[in-house]
């Protein structure tokens, strides 16, 4: 087989395969949860490598031509572009594909139901809190699992600084 050789039917088959695999992987990542994306453990990283290898074969089938690979790559870029554009225009679709932020701590109180919903352990949350320079949950005004999988922490110290800055702006 010539490295550039591909029929019209072969190209269409690759496009269909790529579209199906893309949707399955997006659905799988959505079901796994947000924290998996931002905080990959060794096991999660290995899983991602194996998935990428497995879906490569599913996308291209028997076609090992350069043209087939290029068509698959261009199809992935196009699907990603179209989905991002649709997400930008439709907040409901964005929420469905990306999820919503989850409040984990509010005014120093741990929201255990949300922690379970997000599948985050208290130890993982405490680690994120310490990374933000805060020693205990009682010092956290707001802790949120963001849609990108990171955990944002606003502490009492932040509130005090923000209030002081606002008061100084009013005095000016």
What would your notes on this structure say?
The protein has 172 residues and is α+β, with helices and mostly antiparallel strands. The protein has 2 domains: 8-98, no CATH class; 102-171, 2-Layer Sandwich (CRO Repressor), CATH 3.30.240.20. Helices cover 66% and strands 10% of the residues. The protein is built from 8 helices and 4 strands. A 4-stranded antiparallel beta sheet has the order 2-1-3-4. A hairpin with a 2-residue loop joins strand 1 and strand 2. Helix 4 crosses helix 5 (91-98). Residues 162-167 have low confidence and may be disordered.
Question: What is the multimeric organization of the chains shown?
Answer: single chain
What is the radius of gyration computed over CA atoms, rounded to a whole number of angstroms?
22 Å
The largest beta-sheet arranges its strands as 2-1-3-4
Total count of helical runs of at least 4 residues = 8
Secondary-structure element string: HHHHHEEHHEEH
**Helix content estimate:** 55-70%
Distance between the termini: 76 Å
Secondary structure category: alpha+beta
Mean pLDDT: 81
Strand content: 5-15%
How would you characterize the largest beta sheet? Answer: 4 strands, antiparallel
Q: Extract low-pLDDT stretches.
A: 162-167
């Amino acid at each position: 087989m010539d490295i550039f050789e591909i029929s019209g039917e072969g190209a269409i088959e690759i496009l269909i395969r790529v579209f199906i695999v893309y949707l399955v992987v997006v659905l799988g990542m959505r079901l796994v949860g947000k924290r998996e994306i931002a905080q990959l453990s060794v096991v999660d990283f290995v899983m991602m490598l194996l998935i990428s290898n497995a879906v490569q074969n599913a996308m291209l089938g028997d076609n090992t031509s350069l043209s087939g690979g290029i068509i698959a790559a261009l199809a992935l870029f196009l699907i990603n572009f179209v989905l991002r554009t649709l997400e930008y225009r439709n907040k409901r679709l964005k929420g469905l594909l990306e999820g919503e932020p989850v409040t984990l701590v509010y005014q120093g109180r741990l929201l255990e139901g949300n922690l379970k919903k997000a599948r985050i352990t208290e130890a993982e949350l405490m680690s994120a809190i310490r990374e933000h320079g805060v020693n205990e949950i009682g010092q956290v005004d707001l802790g949120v699992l963001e849609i990108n999988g990171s955990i944002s922490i606003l502490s009492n110290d932040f509130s005090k600084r923000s209030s002081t800055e606002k008061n100084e702006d009013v005095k000016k």
